[in-house]
Design goal:
Elements (H helix, E strand, L loop, with lengths): L8 H19 L7 H12 L10
Length: 56
C-alpha cells in the first residue's frame, strides 16, 4: 500500500471520515460484505457515477 499524504487539514479530515466508516463497518459488518465492493460503491457515488447494481 502506498503511503498517504496526510499533511493538510483536508486530507486528515477525509481520512477521518473513512476511518469512522471503517470502524462502523468493522463493528457491525454486513454478512458477506466485500471491502472492495464497498470501496467501489463509495468511489462511484463520490464521483457521481451511475450505480453498478439495480436499486431493487
Amino acid at each position: 500500500m502506498s503511503e498517504l499524504d496526510l499533511s493538510t487539514d483536508q486530507a486528515r479530515v477525509s481520512y477521518g471520515i473513512g476511518r469512522q466508516l471503517g470502524d462502523q463497518l468493522r463493528d457491525n459488518p454486513p454478512p458477506g460484505a466485500s471491502l472492495e465492493a464497498i470501496v467501489a460503491g463509495l468511489r462511484d457515488a463520490f464521483h457521481g457515477q451511475p450505480s453498478q447494481v439495480d436499486p431493487e
